[in-house]
Design brief:
By secondary structure, the protein is mainly alpha-helical. The chain has 14 helices and two strands, in the order ββαααααααααααααα. The protein has a two-stranded antiparallel sheet with strand order 1-2. It is globular, with a radius of gyration of 19 Å.
Length: about 270
């Protein structure tokens, strides 16, 4: 198989299984970020040990990618290695915008307790807001193995859009938009790579439709609106049209309009 990943210069490249198998001869601390990412996408647990080594890579981006790749493998035997790494990082790390301790705590919650554990932690008191943010970010690349993950992500997007939690109201505008776009993009990737979204209970589809419509009414980065316009293709026409209503009848501009037109064609073919 081939995997579409990004190298350290954020350039998209292809990695295949042959390259991954060859990388097993290397120590994880020497692996490139694209190899680390592809290992996670492959979901092959034979790469677990190399990824455990990679969480000690000299480059932070490689360490973080290794954490997410280990989560993607869902190999519970890696839990202790991740816990050991998390314990070695002082609490002061929470003060950084990109906190490895926070990311590791989010990854450990999902790995140990599943989607239900993620939901419980996200809405619980006493959990640092940065960890709650990272619980959303674990889905930013489309990670999902169960409908409960998607149901949580939809609920997370809903409360985030409404800023229902006090900690959300304290976020800077740029941070708020980045998290929102990441969550929406993760949901879109899931919709493109599986049928999970279309198999959700009606109540979840209705919630996504209403939340998407509310986001389209916001003064928010247009990319968020592009994603929603694209995401509509995965919904039943009735709910898709309700979600897209705020940008219908000539109200969409630029790239948002392009995505809207493309989605309307798909929706029409479904009718």
């Amino acid at each position: 198989m081939e995997y579409n990943v990004y190298n350290e210069r954020n350039i998209g490249i292809l990695v295949d299984d042959e390259m991954l198998k060859k990388s097993l001869e290397q120590n994880g601390k020497d692996l490139s970020v694209e190899i680390i990412s592809a290992m996670g996408i492959s979901k092959d647990k034979c790469y677990s040990k190399r990824l455990e080594e990679a969480i000690y890579h000299e480059k932070q981006i490689n360490r973080i990618k290794a954490m997410y790749s280990l989560l993607s493998l869902e190999d519970i035997t890696t839990f202790e290695a991740l816990r050991k790494k998390e314990s070695s990082i002082p609490d002061e790390d929470f003060q950084y915008e990109l906190s490895e301790k926070s990311i590791l705590q989010a990854v450990l919650i999902r790995l140990e307790k599943g989607a239900d554990g993620v939901r419980e932690a996200f809405f619980a008191e006493g959990i640092p807001s940065i960890v709650k943010t990272d619980l959303l970010y674990i889905y930013a690349t489309g990670f999902s193995t169960a409908s409960k993950d998607i149901e949580f992500l939809i609920d997370g997007i809903e409360v985030f859009a409404k800023k229902s939690e006090q900690w959300m109201k304290k976020l800077k505008k740029d941070d708020f938009e980045d998290i929102m776009m990441s969550c929406l993009n993760g949901l879109f990737i899931i919709s493109e790579s599986s049928s999970l979204l279309s198999e959700l209970p009606k109540i979840n589809i209705e919630k996504l439709s209403k939340t998407g419509a509310e986001i389209l009414k916001m003064k928010i980065d247009s990319y968020a609106k592009e994603i929603i316009a694209s995401l509509a293709r995965a919904l039943p026409p009735k709910y898709a049209y309700e979600m897209l209503d705020p940008i219908m009848n000539g109200r969409a501009k630029g790239d948002v309009k392009k995505e809207l037109i493309a989605s309307l064609k798909v929706l029409k073919s479904k009718e």
